[in-house]
């Protein structure tokens, strides 16, 4: 009973506590409710509290529902009344808006009428006053108007006479008027205005030549291009008699011959795109495109007024400003050839005009001024070309730019301007052109190497055979005697790479044209660029292919064969360059091609990659090795993994038949040494703590299989037992343990004729310790038998003697 009462008391107490918590939750701020909830979870009546909380929530929901039902009808009525009020408010707003609009409309007409009335009365007063004053001053004003008319019609000398007549004859008659005094005071200004009007003529002239500079330059460059083409044609054709052809005949020759005999058409060279003209029509000059009379008149006026020096200074100052504008290249000039052409046309047009002014005026410009402008123009032009040409990544655009610069320089040279800096800069652009070519050919080589199948080229007919021979210089009498179908030893990338090298040389030769370089300089340029192509671009492409992760041994073998043939073709590339430059390779300072070194390096890299791949394959097979080092059974055949490994090596070395003998021999010896080293490491690794004689017998069978592979001569060229020497360390170690010939080993150790000369005592001791531990474990309960005790003592004795050998060797 007491327990029941105590339970009821606790229940009442818990209920009261829950009620208090609920009240506290209802009255407490949400941010501070954490401690209250913690007290619920700290207690043991969590479920009962949740029931009470659910009950309290239901009660509140019912109360909320009752309150909403009670006030719902009033809410609806309020909304209805609000909607009615909104409609009335909208009507009121519309009425106010209409009233305001009508008021504004009516008031606007009144305001306009008042303003018109005001303006009308003001005009009436002004007209009356003006008529009275004009009647008094009409002769003076007429004379002044005449002066203005003369100034407007650019009759500057009559204007100056009228101004003098007005000043001395008409103005004194009406001097009592104030405006006459002002007019007298303005006479110096009128003279200045005449000067300004003359100056405006000069400004119009400057604006005209600024607009026409592009066309003037285009015309001048066209003339230079035609003259250069004519000179080339005359040099190419033998002279017939001594009679000189007329200009019309020369242009006829140009028009008829340029299409058939010129190595480059105008469109190909990208020099000029000017309109076609009649054969007998002369190309207009600067004086035909620009009217120079304003500058002559203005110069004369300023000379009469005693301000010639002012005029000269102003003209030179404005032309300097125009020169700076002309020399400022557009930001996107490097994107197209037209941008460069327009830039050059403006510069040429500017200096053609200045040259014309120099030769048709007396001192307006002089040679020193022209030279100063040209020095500035030359430095800015060279700087702009250096900057913008560096953005060009298309070698064709760089080549067209070079041709355009040559024409630009030739045009200005005709007018007597020194252009050596432009040709020096072209030598700098030549280096950039070489870089863009190298980038382009890098992509070409990459595509060729990526698309190659790395297998010998098959030919099934004489036509196909001659086609390959025509693409690549290859001679093999044995291959020629073989019947069709037959195969070339190299793959398709050999003739493709060879021909692309020749195309690169042609591209380099194009840039050297018209640069006034000697044959030796052209030859040196081509050879240096070709060396960069070979040693950097082609070499990197070959190295990238060789270092690819998924490349196989067959591909590496074919790369070695290909690079061997490409190396032999280097002498033909030398002859090719000699033929196009006419510079003999025996000439002093002639650069030699480095193709031999490039292909040798690539071949050596491929050989190293073959050795590495073979070793990796061997390691993959060795990972399959699963020796039972504790077995007591004597095996009868080699391990399966090793049989598979030997079969793989045989098939691999069979592919090496086309390789140079030393490469195949080195690969075979490297593989055998790596296999022997890996097997030794497998036997001595720390994870193998114990092993039995049976395990050694199985290991011995595997080593015998390796020795049998070495004796079979997988690669020809080895002497009798050379390849077997790779396994001599393993063989002597295994013979020592299997035959248990410790007495011979210990007695002969250190002598040159020792039977176990290749057995290191440290290695022997390591392996003996593994067998010693095995012997102890297996004979734990048989250690009292005499044979086992003797064997254990022998192992201990041998181990002790080996330690002695090791310590004496170290000391």
Structural account:
The protein has 811 residues and is an all-alpha fold. It is 75% helix and 0% strand. It contains 28 helices and two strands. Helix 4 packs antiparallel against helix 5 and helix 5 packs across helix 6.
- β-strand number: 2
Distance between the termini: 97 Å
Low-confidence blocks of residues = 238-281, 779-784
Radius of gyration: 53 Å
Strand fraction: under 5%
Outline, from the CA principal axes? flat
Strand order of the largest sheet: 1-2
Mean pLDDT: 79
Structural class determined from secondary elements = mainly alpha
Oligomer: single chain
SSE ordering:
HHHHHHHHHHHHHHEHHEHHHHHHHHHHHH
Helix content: over 70%
Number of H/I helices:
28
Strand count, sense and barrel status of the largest sheet are:
2 strands, antiparallel
Characterize this entry briefly.
The protein is an all-alpha fold and 811 residues long. The chain contains 28 helices and two strands. The protein is flat.
Show the helix and strand layout.
Layout: H1 2-27, H2 34-42, H3 46-152, H4 156-170, H5 178-236, H6 247-257, H7 266-269, H8 286-289, H9 293-304, H10 308-326, H11 337-360, H12 367-389, H13 395-414, H14 420-451, E1 458-459, H15 462-471, H16 477-481, E2 486-487, H17 493-512, H18 519-546, H19 553-568, H20 570-581, H21 595-622, H22 640-655, H23 661-684, H24 693-711, H25 728-739, H26 742-748, H27 761-778, H28 786-810
Antiparallel strand pairs: 1-2
Helix pairs in contact: 1-3, 3-4, 4-5, 5-6, 5-9, 5-10, 5-11, 5-13, 9-10, 11-12, 11-13, 12-14, 13-14, 14-17, 14-18, 17-18, 17-20, 18-21, 19-21, 21-22, 21-23, 22-24, 24-25, 27-28
């Amino acid at each position: 009973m007491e327990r029941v009462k105590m339970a009821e008391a606790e229940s009442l107490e818990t209920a009261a506590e829950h009620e208090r918590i609920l009240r506290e939750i209802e009255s407490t701020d949400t941010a501070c409710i954490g401690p209250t909830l913690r007290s619920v979870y700290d207690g043991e009546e969590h479920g009962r509290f949740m029931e009470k909380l659910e009950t309290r929530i239901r009660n509140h929901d019912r109360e909320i529902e009752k309150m909403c039902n009670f006030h719902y009808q009033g809410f609806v009525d309020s909304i209805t009344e609000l909607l009615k009020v909104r409609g009335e408010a909208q009507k009121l707003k519309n009425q106010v808006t209409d009233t305001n609009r009508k008021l504004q409309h009516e008031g606007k007409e009144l305001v306009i009428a008042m303003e018109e009335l005001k303006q009308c009365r003001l005009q009436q007063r002004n007209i009356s006053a003006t008529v009275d004053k004009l009647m008094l001053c009409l002769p003076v004003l007429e004379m002044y108007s005449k002066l203005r008319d003369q100034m407007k019609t650019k009759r500057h000398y009559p204007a100056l006479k009228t101004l003098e007549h007005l000043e001395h004859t008409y103005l004194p008659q009406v001097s009592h008027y104030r405006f006459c005094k002002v007019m007298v005071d303005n006479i110096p200004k009128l003279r200045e205005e005449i000067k300004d009007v003359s100056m405006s003529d000069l400004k119009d002239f400057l604006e005209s030549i600024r607009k026409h500079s592009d066309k003037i330059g285009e015309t001048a460059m066209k003339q230079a291009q035609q003259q250069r083409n004519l000179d080339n044609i005359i040099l190419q054709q033998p002279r017939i008699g001594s009679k000189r052809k007329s200009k019309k005949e020369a242009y006829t020759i140009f028009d008829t011959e340029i299409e058939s005999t010129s190595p480059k058409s105008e469109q190909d060279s990208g020099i000029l795109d000017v309109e076609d003209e009649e054969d007998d029509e002369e190309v207009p000059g600067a004086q035909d495109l620009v009217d120079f009379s304003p500058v002559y008149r203005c110069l004369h006026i300023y000379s009469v007024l005693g301000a010639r020096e002012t005029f000269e200074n102003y003209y030179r100052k404005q032309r300097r400003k125009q020169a700076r504008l002309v020399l400022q290249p557009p930001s996107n000039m490097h994107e197209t050839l037209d941008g460069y052409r327009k830039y050059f046309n403006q510069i040429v047009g500017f200096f053609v005009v200045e040259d014309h002014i120099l030769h048709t005026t007396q001192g307006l410009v002089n040679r020193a001024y022209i030279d100063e402008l040209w020095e500035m123009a030359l430095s800015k032009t060279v700087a702009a070309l250096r900057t913008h040409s560096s953005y060009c990544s298309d070698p064709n655009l760089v080549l067209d730019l070079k041709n355009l610069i040559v024409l630009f320089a030739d045009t200005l040279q005709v007018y007597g301007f020194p252009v050596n800096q432009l040709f020096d800069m072209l030598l700098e652009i030549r280096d950039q052109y070489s870089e863009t070519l190298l980038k382009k050919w890098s992509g070409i080589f990459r595509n060729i190497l990526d698309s190659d199948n790395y297998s010998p080229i098959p030919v099934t007919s004489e036509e196909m055979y001659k086609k390959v021979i025509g693409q690549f210089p290859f001679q093999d009498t044995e291959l020629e005697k073989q019947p069709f179908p037959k195969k070339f030893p190299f793959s398709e990338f050999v003739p493709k790479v060879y021909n692309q090298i020749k195309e690169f040389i042609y591209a380099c030769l194009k840039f050297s044209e018209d640069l006034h370089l000697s044959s030796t300089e052209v030859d040196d340029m081509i050879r240096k660029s070709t060396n960069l192509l070979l040693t950097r671009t082609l070499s990197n492409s070959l190295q990238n292919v060789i270092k690819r992760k998924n490349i196989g041994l067959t591909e590496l073998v074919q790369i070695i064969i290909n690079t061997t043939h490409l190396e032999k073709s280097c002498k033909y590339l030398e002859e090719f360059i000699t033929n196009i430059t006419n510079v003999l390779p025996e000439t002093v300072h002639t650069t030699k091609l480095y193709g031999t070194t490039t292909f040798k390096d690539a071949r050596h890299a491929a050989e190293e990659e073959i050795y590495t791949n073979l070793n990796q394959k061997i390691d993959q097979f060795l990972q399959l090795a699963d020796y039972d080092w504790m077995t007591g059974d004597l095996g009868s055949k080699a391990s399966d993994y090793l049989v598979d490994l030997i079969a793989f090596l045989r098939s691999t070395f069979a592919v090496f038949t086309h390789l140079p003998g030393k490469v195949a021999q080195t690969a075979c010896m490297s593989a055998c040494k790596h296999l022997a080293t890996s097997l030794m490491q497998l036997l001595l690794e720390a994870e193998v703590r114990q092993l039995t004689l049976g395990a050694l017998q199985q290991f011995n069978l595997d080593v015998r299989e390796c020795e049998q592979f070495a004796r079979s001569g997988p690669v020809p060229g080895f002497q009798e037992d050379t390849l077997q020497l790779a396994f001599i360390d393993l063989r002597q170690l295994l013979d020592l343990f299997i035959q248990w010939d410790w007495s011979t080993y210990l007695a002969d150790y250190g002598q040159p004729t020792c039977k176990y000369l290749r057995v290191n005592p440290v290695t022997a001791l390591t392996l003996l310790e593994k067998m010693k531990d095995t012997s102890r474990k297996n004979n734990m309960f048989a250690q009292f038998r005499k044979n086992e005790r003797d064997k254990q003592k022998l192992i201990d004795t041998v181990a002790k003697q080996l330690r002695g050998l090791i310590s004496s060797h170290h000391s």
